[in-house]
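User: I'm curious whether this sequence folds into something compact or stays loose and floppy. Could you predict its structure so I can see for myself?
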Amino acid sequence: MAEHEGAEEMDTVLAEVGARLRSIRKDRGATLAGLSEATGISVSTLSRLESGHRKPSLELLLPIARAHQVPLDELVGAPEVGDPRVRSKPIVRNNRTHLSLGGQPGGLQAYKVIIQAPDPKHEHAEQRTHEGYEWLYIISGKLRLKLAHHDVVLGPGEAAEFDTRVPHWFDAVDGPVEMLSLFGPQGERMHVRAKPKRAAEG
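Assistant: Here's the prediction. I'll summarize afterward.
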């Protein structure tokens, strides 16, 4: 029953994103063929996105946002910047602030994340894993991302996506970082990977 309800919630979220994509395109008087030419995404894929039959990802949403010249968060239904009627409350943990941008439990979750400054203690923290999939889009600042044996730095306008079952860790590099984070189902379920046990000495 729980799995069935979760699937229905995901279908609802996908349908809302698709309807928003269609609405924005029509408001700008663009055709699927024209948008396909501007983004390099096939007409069939764009059509499936708008109908909710294709799962949205940053790889697809970023070119569409650039083509329409709109912020990425507008495509995923984030509240307008500065709107005092936004009801979500920031969640502050250590040097990080998470602001929910909407979504239903069990479905696609969108957050704006602000990391105030690098945390020296966090640099030596264990890489973590959790069920689901994650997309990161850097708005400002620089983010260091460790993904298994990869160690990269992302700057404004850059994005990353990965299976969150792969050990990962990220933090600010040299100052505040603002980013958009999208989680797939069960993305909030996180746990620290256990360290391998050391052989007994002697």
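Summary: The longest strand covers residues 133-140. The radius of gyration is 19 Å.
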